[in-house]
Amino acid sequence: MFSKDEIRPDRNSIWAFIEEFPEESSDITDARKAARELGVQPVSAHTADLLRVLAASTHAQNILEVGTGTGVSTLALLQGMEPGSAMTTLDIDNSRLQRARLAIQNSSHGRKHRVRTICGDAAEVLPRLSQGSYDLAFVDTSVESAEYSVLSCLSLIKSGGLLIMHNALNQGLVAQPTARDPQTVVHRRLLQEIQECTHDVFVSLVHSNLGLYLVYKR
Ligand SMILES: C[S@@+](CC[C@H](N)C(=O)[O-])C[C@H]1O[C@@H](n2cnc3c(N)ncnc32)[C@H](O)[C@@H]1O
């Protein structure tokens, strides 16, 4: 028997257990297959579970997603939302969006909500959306468009809303002090700048998959 002092947590096995724990629905498994075919990196199973819990526990009525891909994260969010609530999701790539549309149509959860899918560049679409009208925004776009999308979504969510940024650590590079490529520098600065607005936000960096940045707008 180990005493408490002798237990050395093995971070790799903890992490593997957490990632293998979720039991995904068949619609999400199908969307993952489509992601593999089209070369998209969807959220991990653990992140999908977390998104569903966050959508449900915040009782989000109006969700915005930037970076639909083939719909893995979209379906997870829809599963957590109350029937009748609304989701707007956008992606610049029409072939991915088409697969996501199919996945949403074929999912029982998709049919319970009002889902608007928009094909376009975040830089062109986000300025057309209503400021302060979303309860939750999920940003999972390219590293190049992440900063713009995160800052725009901060204005698009209501006070009391939640912003979730995926891949907040830019494939882990933000955590490596020697990594100084332009995108990593931008990500590092963005996390810091938002954290410093303490009168406006509460933040938490969550160790999930590629790093999730949770920003609660006060
Ligand atoms: C990591 S994938 C999203 C995966 C998706 N959230 C999921 O879990 O299945 C990122 C997506 O962002 C889209 N994207 C990249 N740049 C964009 C931009 N400027 N505006 C809108 N979408 C963009 C890509 O086409 C890609 O599908």
UniProtKB/TrEMBL annotation:
Keywords annotated in UniProt: Methyltransferase, S-adenosyl-L-methionine, Transferase
For this protein, the record's Pfam families field holds: Methyltransf_3 (PF01596)
Q: Does the keyword Transferase apply?
A: yes
Q: Name one GO molecular function term.
A: O-methyltransferase activity
PROSITE patterns documented for this protein: SAM_OMT_I
Is Transferase set as a keyword in this record?
A: yes
Q: Which domain of life is it from?
A: Bacteria
Query: What biological process terms from GO does the record include?
Result: methylation
Name of the protein this chain belongs to: Class I SAM-dependent methyltransferase
Q: What is the lineage of its organism?
A: Bacteria, Bacillati, Actinomycetota, Actinomycetes, Micrococcales
